Amino acid sequence: MAHMLEEYGNMASFASLRKPAWHGLGTVIDEPVSTSEMLSLAHLDKWNVRVEELVLPGRSHREHFATIRTNPFDGENDVLGVVGERYKVLQNEELFQFGDNLLDGGQWETAGSIKNGTVVFGSLALDREINLDPKGRGDKINSYLLVHTSHDGSLAIQASVTPVRVVCQNTLNMAVGSKGRGAKQSFRIRHTQTLNGKITAAREALGMAKQYLDEFDVVANEMISKEISDKQFFDIISTVYTKPEEDTKGAMTKWETKIDTLNDIYFGETCVNIKGTAWGAYNAMTERLDWYRNPRGGNAESVLAAASGFDAATNANKNLILATVKQIAFA
User: Fold this and answer.
1) In the list 93, 113, 160, 301, which could disulfide-bond 186, CB 3.0-4.6 Å?
2) What is the sign, positive or negative, of the torsion defined by CA atoms of 228, 229, 231, 234?
């Protein structure tokens, strides 16, 4: 899979604590560093993002502005997007300070930019580990505070709690909660607002993330304790991905490839300790979504976003998968 991190020569706008990224790019550090050091290592500092009014070829009922940054690699100006008159700039330093303030400081795990610098992200490790160990299966989930935003108006400023299964690094965002109401796990601020005075509200919202992780823990334990047969696993994947009735435009070959990939994951190394459970089925399917999809048009930026946990459509897809797994496994 392509990575689509921002690159310049042999440098990439990405830094990671200890665990090398799958793409082999960026800077890997062995010990935690300060926020300013993490920004510098990921080439996210001193962008000086700003807006400049655009001169339009005709009359307009409102003003339009270009968001511009100073390129961290060559010092040239980059136009990142076109925004409206109410748009408020957020520097990368402010985004990461926002993350620090939410946790009263923390350990930065990753930082980087994608989509040619229009999207930036960083993750902080949370002091919350979920161990799933019925019958000695020994599966582990770590949790992170993810902060991200865009500099082209396409994304709000967002902080969210993201559970990640350690062995394969696939995100496990799922809708949990009683009576169909998902527990709060994210906080958003539009770029027409400022971060001033938002820390308290964000902390209150993300304070509910403890409830989310508690309920996530319950769901995950129920699923890893529920054993399923190989037939049930096939029923799950063939329900989510229905076999095509006609082989038009290679539909049958594509379907068979998808089923083969899911079987390879489920019976492979990353699921070896959870195969034969509803949890194993769910993880095999989310792992395929995060790491095995072919990006449309060769653009893998959306795939990286999904694997990082901040793609809403992928998270919704994972919830549909979760519903199917539970329906068949617990029938």
Assistant:
1) 160
2) positive
- How many CB atoms neighbour CB 275 within 10 A? 20
| Residue where the block lists tokens 């938002």 | 198
Whole-angstrom distance, CA of residue 260 vs CA of residue 292: 12
Q: How far apart are CA 96 and CA 15, in angstroms?
A: 14
Sign of CA dihedral 123, 125, 128, 129: positive
Give me the number of domains the chain comprises. 2
Domain boundary among 205, 220, 235: 220
Q: 206-216 pLDDT, tens per residue?
A: 776 778 888 89
Q: Which residues, at least 6 apart from 133, have a Cβ–Cβ distance to it below 8 Å?
A: 139
Kindly list the distances between the CA atom of residue 312 and the CA atoms of 83, 112, 255, in Å, as whole numbers in the listed order.
22, 19, 24
Mean pLDDT, range 31-41, rounded to an integer: 94
Shared domain for 246 and 192, answered yes or no, is: no
Q: Given this model, what pLDDT does residue 20 score?
A: 60
Q: Helix 230-240 and helix 251-266: axis angle, to 10°?
A: 140
Any domain includes 279: yes
Q: Tell me which residue of 154, 126, 325, 311 sits closest to 233, measured CA to CA.
A: 325
Chain Cα centroid distance, residue 249 = 32
pLDDT band at 201 (very low <50, low <70, confident <90, very high): confident
285 and 154 housed in the same domain: no
pLDDT of residue 1: 36
User: What pLDDT band is residue 186 in, cutting at 50, 70 and 90?
Assistant: confident
Residue 4 to residue 308: CA distance in whole angstroms: 13
pLDDT, greater one: 185 or 56: 56
User: Are 215 and 238 part of one and the same domain?
Assistant: no
State yes or no: pLDDT of 276 exceeds 60: yes
- Looking at the whole model, is its pTM more than 0.85? no
Q: Is residue 73 part of a domain?
A: yes
Which domain does 298 fall in, by range?
Answer: 223-329
Q: What is the CA radius of gyration of the chain?
A: 21
On whether the CB atoms of residues 183 and 211 are closer than 8 A, the answer is yes
